[in-house]
Structures are given as C-alpha cells and as structure tokens.
Specification:
Two copies of one chain form a homodimer.
Chain A: E1 5-6, H1 16-22, H2 32-49, E2 55-58, H3 62-73, E3 78-82, H4 85-96, E4 101-105, H5 114-121, E5 128-132, E6 134-135, E7 140-141, H6 144-152, E8 158-162, H7 174-177, E9 181-185, E10 197-201, H8 203-210, H9 221-228, H10 239-255, H11 257-278, E11 281-282, E12 293-297, H12 304-315, E13 317-318, E14 330-334, H13 341-355
Parallel strand pairs in A: 1-13, 3-4, 3-5, 5-8, 8-9
Antiparallel strand pairs in A: 2-10, 6-7, 9-10, 11-12, 12-14
Helix pairs in contact in A: 1-10, 2-10, 5-6, 10-11, 11-13, 12-13
Chain lengths: ~350, ~350
C-alpha cells in the first residue's frame, strides 16, 4: 500500500467518500437495480457534458473509447491533431486499426492552430478529426472553441475530442460547439480510480457509424445506444466505479459546477505563482496553459528525478517528473480533483522545504 | 443499495474482504508500486491458469478480450462452437469484426461433440476455434479435454476458450491441453466485482498476431506482451480490481486450489440433490452439468418469475429466472465464489419455504 498522496496528473488522489462508494454491493447488470443506478447517473452526466445526446459508460481506459471512435467513424482518412505524447499516440492507434491517417503536428507544448487545421481540412481528404483538448503530457490546453468553429465549416468531418484531463475543470459545451464525440476517463479530473471511460456521441456520429463495417462489438456506438435506451451497457460494466461515479456526480453538483470551475482556476493560479516565484517557466504559452495541471519547464536545471523522489519519500507527496521525451526537462503538478487552497498550499510549502537541495548551487 | 444476496450466475456475491481491497489507495500505473502489484499477481495467476505463458490484466468485460482474440488471431475463418446464449453471441462478434465465421451448433443445453468438431476442422477452412467451456446460460460444461485432443490434430487452428464461469471452479490445464487463449472475467467464479478480464496467451498465438493487420491498440496481444515484460498494462488499468484480484488470489491459495475445486463440487451436488428432491430436472445431461451453477429445467411448470421475485423480496436472495430464449423455462442457481455448505443450505431452505406457492396445485 502506498504511503504518499498523488499530485501527479492522473490517477489523482481519490476521496474517502469515493472509495467508500466502491464498496456498495454489486447487483446484476441486467436487473432493475442497475437500470436505476444508470438512470440516476444519466441526467447528471448530460448536464455536465452540456449535451442532450446520451452519455455512455464504457468499461475501459479512455484509449478504449478513443479506438472505438476510430473504428466507428472513419472510412476515408483521419486527421490527428498532435501536440504531445497522447495526441501523438492517436496516429499509431488509427494505423493499428488499419485505417488511413495524417497528422497536423505542432511541437510539444504548442497549441493547434485553427488556421492550419482549416487549410488541412479544405483538401476534402478527411472525414474525422481527433483532438486532445488538454494535452496532459505538456500541460497545454488547445483553443477548443476556435478549433470547433473551423470544424463547423466541414459538416462531413466528424470530431472526437479527448477531454480526459479537462472535463469538469473548465466548461465544455458539447452541443453548442458541435463536438461529435466528447470523451473522458474516470481517474483524472473526476478523481475516481481508473477503469471507466465516459463518452457522449452525436446523432450524426450514429448515422456515420451505421455506414461503417468492422466496428466490432465491444466499442460499437450503436450497441451502446441500443443498450442505453434500456438503461444498460452492452457488456457487463465495472459496477463499483459506476457507484463511485454517482457519488462523484452528486458531489460535483453539491459544490456547484461553476464553483468547481472557479476552484480549479484558483488552485491552478496558486501553482503558477509558485512557479513564477521560483524563477521557473511553464512549458506552454501562458495563454494556452492547462487549468488542470502545470507542466513546468526545467529552465533552472534542477535535478528533477532527485526532487520528485525526495518529495515522495520524505514528504509523502507524489508529483510527476515529466513524460516521455520531456522527462527531466519538465515536471508536472496536478490541481485536479478535490484539492483546495490548503492542500495545494501544503504541497507547495513541502516542495519549498527541500527544493534547494536539487537546484544547482 | 440492494438489500439481497446474489446467487445469480454472475456477478456473484463479493466478500467483505474483497470489497475492502477495492479501497486500497490507487497509485500511478507507471510507478514501481504498480509494477510491484502486477508482479505479485502474476505468479499466482500463472499457477491458477496452469501455464508458463503470461496472464494479462485487461480492463474490460470478458467480451472485450474475446473480441480481442478475434481481432488478433484469425485471417481465414473462425469456427464458433455454439451451445447457448454466450457461445451463440460469439458468431455475431466475429461478424462485427468483419471476419469470416461458421458455427458448429448444438441445441442449448447439449454439449459440443468432439467428433463433429473433428469433421468440421478436417475441411481445412478454419484458423481459429472459439469455445465457451461452461455455457452459463444453460449450466452446461463442455468436455474440454476431448475437444482439445481434436484441436491438437490441427496445429494451424488456434483455440480461444472462455472459462468465465468455470475458471477456478474446476482444474483447467492450459499448457497441457494446448489452449492458445484462456480467458475469464472477474465477476463469476473469482467473486470479484465486474470490470476486469484475465487472459493467458500462447507463444504461437503471439506468432499468429504478428501476421495480422487491424488488431487495434486496446486489445492488441503484442502490446499486452510488451507491457507485461515491464510489469505493466498497455492502458491505464482498473487498479481497484487489481487490488481485489491480489486479495482473491491470496485467499484462493490459502484455501488451497484442490480444496476449492472440491468445495465447488460438493456445493454443486448439494444443489443437485435439492433439484432431484423437488422432482425438477437439470437442463443438460448430468454428465455435462456445470459445477459452477445449476440450470434447472422447469418441468414442473412453476411460476418461475413469481418465485424468483418472492425469493428476492421476501427472503432477500437473488437467483436467476432463466436467460434469453429459455427464460421462464429454466431457472439458475449459482454456487460460485465464496459459498459454503451453510450458505447453500440456507438458500435451499429459504427456497423450500416459499416454492409451494408457485407450483401448480
């Protein structure tokens, strides 16, 4: 059993209330008691997704649902907007599904330029665009509204937007922005343990899926829809996490969604102030910095690995030492989930206590 | 929250110890602490699977892993051995993956005849056979050893065996029988909540996978293998259920695997005696009756729905009123998981208390 608290950008620290909810006794997934649980979650999910489309509960990591979107929605070619480790990976996933793909790439930490997207789409080659809203590897949040304005010009191009680390941190107006598939996972901003993906699918995405062969069963959007209409999932779902989800949704609406957005912004600013005060810089431009986590550029040439290790072992707090090719060149601090001023202040103070040992003298 | 105990054939009743394990704090899935958890489970899983092949932890229902097997292993044609609702469904799943498929079908409740399988395979048309070892919908257990003897004659035909409701109830010697993919789920005989599939994959299945396009990412066997070698999973896994799995594996070896097999046989006999004493019959031939559950033929024309409802509402015990097209014509009682003589006796006594009200006078 671990003896430290998670401030890594997912999985994040889970509240004792959410853990307690996991223990709610399991029922048969074809029983009226399950339908009741499903139907309690659904309106809260739709409110949070800002959508009238169904929100599906998918027992997988978010990558499962992301692969599902590819299998369900593209027959021409997919354009992956890539700006970090997770958006990059999507190219690989599309190829592994034996589908055509191109990338619209920017350097890690930079944002996707809506004009560049417009130019790409004007070729008429694509029928699907994938976008990671908040690139967790770089702490960069793409300008979703402007990107969706471009997509609105191309009604034959569907959009899949991964909001794994931004969902419930900032408002995302699915229907208003015209997002076809909005998906997220349980273990980041929702602060549940991993194992459940949530996705909301538009009517025109269902229409597209009907025309596509080889969608499979497990991630088939039409199978999800058919079962949704009965208050069920296609396959046996991860019921403990759905109990946890209901608990979490009720907590979110108890806090108030707007309050939740404000709290995240405030905590994010608190971390940014600490970063400034130390003389560190953010990896992305401030304007595109994530509100969920801070990806700090190691411009001071700190011993990141040593700092992260000491913080975990001595202070019992886990932050992240950078992802993939920017490991050591960056470090990341999450403010997702149930953090508050006190808990973030505590983290920053503990970091202050030891950081001098890892900075060049 | 439900107020009754599950004796349906999955999900089954979860012990308080297993529920407690779900609350173990989540760690980062790329951290040494996760690797430690993974590596603690692995040797116990291999022992239980009776294999030297890796056993993968897949965050999905068993259907996810079953679809994965299809996507990874067939390019010619799949032969699905069908003998009930779940084995029937596999035909549909293969078709939805846009792959060729035939069925070797028997009536629900009958077993797959090894000779008929031999005849089918001798055509040389097939490169994959799917088999549901214990058809949960009919309470019928196929003669696995004899079936695998037939498959041994066809080295180019790979086998996928679903043991969702027989794994850890009866011994299944994966390596000795030459099963290529042995898979199970968490919520039946292992008595964990649903959300985790377990599968062990043979060397020649990996070799086959290497030659097949469109395997995707989420269920790609080679991706599982690559991550397994680091003590990890390809995607963020359902960590609470892995904590629960470790707890369950330790409990199983504490009881002793042989004792566990014997206990299940004994409890199954106890239910069979009750069935005989009432004048009911089993749906399958006694020789092929499942050791995990009893599928009872409604030869006495009982009001099954009424009986099941009263048992749940008055006695707080849930059994199953029959699956799919044999709903009402059968009912099912599970003896999977952590049941013992007392708990099964209690169930049977409670059933005795009310059954007369639902039998024709």
């Amino acid at each position: 059993m671990i003896d430290y608290k998670l401030h890594i950008p997912g999985p994040v620290n889970v509240s004792s209330g959410a853990y307690q909810a996991l223990k709610t006794p399991v029922m048969g997934h074809r029983s009226p008691d399950f339908v009741d649980l499903y139907n309690k979650c659904q309106p809260l999910l739709q409110k949070l997704f800002q959508t009238e489309d169904p929100v599906f509960l998918c027992t997988s990591s978010a990558w499962g649902a992301m692969e599902g979107a590819v299998r369900n929605l593209t027959k021409k070619k997919t354009l992956c907007c890539t700006c970090g480790a997770f958006s990059d990976k999507w190219i690989d996933v599309v190829q592994r599904c034996d589908k055509e793909v191109d990338a619209l790439s920017v350097e890690w930490g930079k944002h996707i330029d809506p004009n560049a997207l417009d130019e790409k789409l004007s070729s008429g080659e694509y029928d699907l665009v994938t976008l990671v809203h908040n690139e967790t590897s770089c702490g960069m949040m793409n300008p979703l509204e402007d990107i969706m304005k471009v997509l609105a010009k191309y009604p034959d191009v569907l959009s899949v937007v991964d909001t794994v680390s931004s969902f419930s941190v900032v408002p995302i107006q699915k229907d208003l922005l015209g997002i076809d598939v909005l998906l997220t996972g349980s273990q980041k901003a929702l602060a549940l343990p991993p194992g459940l993906a949530l996705l909301s699918v538009s009517e025109r995405a269902f229409e597209r899926a009907k025309t596509i062969k080889g969608r499979g069963y497990y991630f088939d959007f039409l199978e999800f829809l058919k079962n949704h209409e009965k208050g069920m999932t296609p396959s046996t779902p991860v019921i403990p996490l759905i109990h946890g989800l209901l608990y979490t949704l009720e907590s979110i609406f108890e806090e108030g969604v707007e309050n939740r957005f404000q709290r995240h912004e405030q905590l994010n600013n608190q971390v940014h102030q600490w970063i400034d005060s130390k003389g560190f810089e953010l990896l992305p431009e401030k304007k595109f910095a994530s509100k969920s986590l801070s990806c700090v550029k190691n411009n001071l040439e700190m011993d990141v690995a040593g700092f992260v290790k000491a913080l975990r072992e001595e202070k019992k707090l886990a932050i992240d030492g950078g992802y993939g090719k920017i490991k050591g060149k960056t470090f990341r601090i999450s403010n997702m989930g149930n953090e508050d001023n006190q808990s973030i202040e505590f983290l920053l103070n503990q970091m202050d206590d030891i950081i001098h040992r890892f900075l060049p003298s």
